[in-house]
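ok trying this again, last paste got cut off
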Amino acid sequence: MAFLLLQALHGAKPMWDFEEVLSLEKDEVYKTSFSVAGIPKDLMLYWTLYKNYGLVVHLKYDKFPYQFVLYTDYKRKSFKIPISQGNDIDKNAYILLSFRDFDEKNKRANLALFMMLPKKLPSN
């Protein structure tokens, strides 16, 4: 019985703290702000090129720039950034950007942005 419960929990969908579907044109900037342990954080992203089924994305989080290519196949469709490394903060907090598809007719990239914000660990 415990094995089945553990297996069901392992396959459960994450409970996202933030979830947004994005449809962006080339060089269209998406920005959002949130706070981690009371400290304001900014996230900004846009894409610059779609070629050979790859989407070149520029992302800036916490003043650190990232550039990467996303594809729609399972292994290369998402980019994950850890949110915090503090001692009293949940280490499993992260931002996940996922490439859903590209609308060739309207030249728009369809993405999904998810955030699992840090949770305070119970003090003993």
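PB: full thing came through this time. The radius of gyration is 17 Å.
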